[in-house]
Amino acid sequence: MNYSEDADVKLALKFRRKWREARMFARAMASADHPILAQIIPIRRCNLACTYCNEFDKDSPPVPTAEMLRRIDKLGALGTSIITFSGGEPTLHPDLDLLIRRVREHEAIATIITNGYLLTPDRIKRLNAAGLDYLQISIDNVQPDDVSKKSLRVLNRKLEWLREYATFDVTINSVLGSAIAQPEDAYEIAARARSLGFNSTVGVIHDGGGQLKPLNGTQAGIYERILGLGKGLFSFSHFDTFQRNVVKAQPNSWHCPAGGRFLYICEDGLVHYCSQQRGHPAIPLSEYSREDLVREGRKPKGCAPFCTISCVHQTAMLDEFRTRPQETLEKILHGPRERDPEWTPPASVRALEWMFLKNSRAKKIFGALALRVFGVNRGGTNRV
């Protein structure tokens, strides 16, 4: 396959992926009784030992493949839209490709969060063939140190391979917080990600309970510089309502949907609120019911005001848009416009702005039309 043909294939796959994302969004707007995102652990073991991380061990075996397939089937039966493999280090599971294929058989969006160390051209091509949709790598520093070996120097060649071979989308997450010795590294990492054509996000390191560690003045300034790089409106780095309060050590007022719209399934097959709240509710996934989804998703969580778990925030953002579209869209648009008064949102966002902020009749007409186009009914039984 020559370069032109390869570019055409990537473009076609990207279009199909965006179409499936649009269907996911439409279904999330039509129904509140299914999980939007589930993180599942195929192996707790990791090949690294970052000192700030509490989500790994050094000797756990992979979850048996047959059991992983049953868990994915259960998530499919619950109507889960996005299934993310995390860890530990998920690429250590010997049958990860098979697990990704099973996710796609359920017409869900398949993603992995990896440290990237085991990526090679052949491994990337296998992920392509399996049908992976998204891959995220967190890079903590430019040069490896005693805290983390996930450095740009070590991973830069892997990033170049991803640019060359990956047909899935790639997001590079840089990190700020007290455990990071050189906070200016986060900007260099984000800039490198953008130069390679990848999405980039920036996260704030949390403590062992998922709670915020406020940034100092230097770190907060770097955070603002990263936001100034621009790109995706709906990436977490641009959903300012949560992160700006985290940076300032201020609480967020929001409802955490974990246990309902967001699920975390550990290696033992138990459902938890998130990686930092393991033990709650700790119900076996095999027994998890729609009643459990509704009950746990509606429960207030005492950890929510100072939470930094971005994937749960993103899930909550979709529900906020479903229940309060005008207010949520205004908040989303406020951050970029505050930084750059001449900023123009993408065409798709301008359409949402016109529908929800400027033309309530269009909202009803186009909303109903979108549900029909994407094959979604308000009962929530259709798949993404």
Q: Strands, helices and their partners?
A:
Layout: H1 3-30, E1 37-40, H2 65-77, E2 82-85, H3 96-105, E3 109-114, H4 121-130, E4 134-139, H5 152-165, E5 169-176, H6 185-195, E6 199-204, H7 217-227, H8 240-247, E7 262-265, E8 270-272, E9 281-284, H9 290-298, H10 310-323, H11 325-339, H12 347-358, H13 360-373
Parallel strand pairs: 1-2, 1-7, 2-3, 3-4, 4-5, 5-6
Antiparallel strand pairs: 7-8, 8-9
Helix pairs in contact: 1-10, 3-4, 6-7, 10-11, 11-12, 12-13
Give the structure's gist in a few sentences:
The protein is α/β, with parallel strands linked by helices. It is built from 13 helices and 9 strands. Helix 1 crosses helix 10, helix 3 packs parallel to helix 4 and helix 11 packs across helix 12.
Q: Spans of 5+ residues with little confidence (pLDDT < 50)?
A: 232-238
Taking strands numbered 1, 2, ... along the chain, how are they ordered across the largest sheet? 6-5-4-3-2-1-7-8-9
Counting structural domains, the number is 1
Run of helices and strands: HEHEHEHEHEHEHHEEEHHHHH
Quick check: average pLDDT?
Answer: 84
Q: Give the second-level CATH assignment, the architecture.
A: Alpha-Beta Barrel
Number of helices: 13
Share in helix: 40-55%
Q: Which shape, going by the Cα principal axes?
A: globular
Structure classification: alpha/beta
